Amino acid sequence: MTLLDNKLSSPQHIVLRHNWTLDEIKDLLEQPLIDLLWNAQLIHRTANPGYKVQLASLLSVKTGGCQEDCAYCSQSMHNTSDVTGQPDLDVQPVLERAKAAQEAGADRFCMGWAWREIRNGKDFEAMLAMVRGVRELGLEACVTAGMLTDEQAFRLADAGLTAYNHNLDTSPEHYDKIITTRTYQERLETLQRVRAAGITICCGGIIGMGESIVDRASLLKVLATMDPHPESVPINSLVAVEGTPLENLSSIDPLEMVRMVATARILMPYSRVRLSAGREQLGREAQILCLQAGADSIFYGDSLLTTSNPAVSADRELLAQAGVKVNWEWND
Ligand code: SAM
Ligand code: DTB
Ligand code: SF4
Q1: Tag placement on the chain: N or C end, fewer CB within 10 Å?
Q2: Which atom of ligand 2 is nearest to the CA of 75?
């Protein structure tokens, strides 16, 4: 693989590329694991020499009742698991949760709204106040709330928002089997609005939704040919939630997650590759392989949005066992 050999011979000179082809990416995903791990590590050790891992905590501010029909999601009103009955959170309790996450060691706080799109009004004003409050605490602030307008993106930027999360979820080719209520193109346009407002992009996807290796390569191609690359790339594995059309899909082989993370690291050397949903199914050794192969962030805290995440104490132990450096151990 000549392109990679280039990097292998001089890993200290990482060449950022935005012209990756589907075949190159598929070849990487399918490399003998031992070679893929080596190639990913060479890039990772060069781009992130201290193996610094960012801890990001997640909170669902508005849960359930979403108009979109995402087949994996517990919060879609099209799915019988639609999680309802929880009031939307107010500004103050959200900021208290952010403070608690910070005290537990997180340095990024991500807030989710189960909306198809942001609408102007008191809920949006509250979102802006939350962003300002999280930033005042000294944390990075990330919001995920569906589609938005140019003006809303600028207002979020003005409030100090660090990142907007909007995942592509899967390949353009597999997308229609997962979501029918909004298009891939709409997703891309939202990302462009976020970028134009000067907010960093958090964009990734999910594996384990019945997609092929070519689909995984195709999703990675869309991400890795963005210029600039998304600053943050969450890689989720499906949490098969009861009441969703994907409830009966079996879990992926943990090594598939390792391959996905390693390939994302090679393609997007300086992006934060976040090991996201599905860590409970991965086990300790596969998570450590992911950290070695290039994951430099995890969601940290006992819950994700509506499903559980490994306990904070277990994660602290895992990170110490892996020997990576977490936020409070970074000296720069
Ligand atoms: N409504 C917003 C949106 O879709 O952009 C924000 C919330 S949404 C829950 C954020 C992301 O979480 C989704 O795009 C998807 O990639 C991921 N996600 C949601 N449910 C999941 C599940 N059951 N398993 C794995 N990832 C999931
Ligand atoms: C992302 O890619 N994964 C996070 C975050 N971005 C918003 C959400 C995971 C949700 C997992 C399912 C749940 O808890 O409902
Ligand atoms: Fe709504 Fe987001 Fe869930 Fe899709 S993933 S149903 S847009 S909350």
Answers
A1: C
A2: 15
The bound ligand whose nearest atom lies closest to the alpha carbon of 234 is: 2
pLDDT digits (tens, 9 = 90+) for 143-175: 999 999 999 999 999 999 999 999 999 999 999
Is 142 part of the annotated catalytic residue set? yes
> Is the overall model pTM greater than 0.90, yes or no?
yes
Whether 202 is catalytic is yes
| pLDDT value, residue 88 | 87
CA 237 to chain centre: 11
- Considering the four listed CATH numbers 3.20.20.70, 3.40.50.2300, 1.10.8.60, 3.40.50.300, the one that applies to the domain covering 20-320 is 3.20.20.70
> Residue 201: its pLDDT value, please?
98
The response to whether residue 146 sits with its C-beta less than 6 Å from ligand 1 reads: yes
Rounded distance, CA 58 to CA 259, Å?
25
Q: Cβ distance 273 to 296 under 8 Å?
A: yes
Expressed in angstroms and rounded, the spacing between residue 76 Cα and the centre of ligand 2 is 13
Our answer on whether the CB atom of 64 is closer than 6 Å to any ligand 3 atom is no
Domain residue extents for the chain: 20-320
Per the DSSP assignment, residues forming a β-bridge with 54 are 297
Reported in sequence order, the residue ranges of the chain that DSSP labels E, i.e. its strands, are 52-62, 108-113, 140-144, 163-165, 200-202, 205-207, 232-237, 272-275, 297-299, 325-326
**Ligand found nearest the CA of 307:** 2
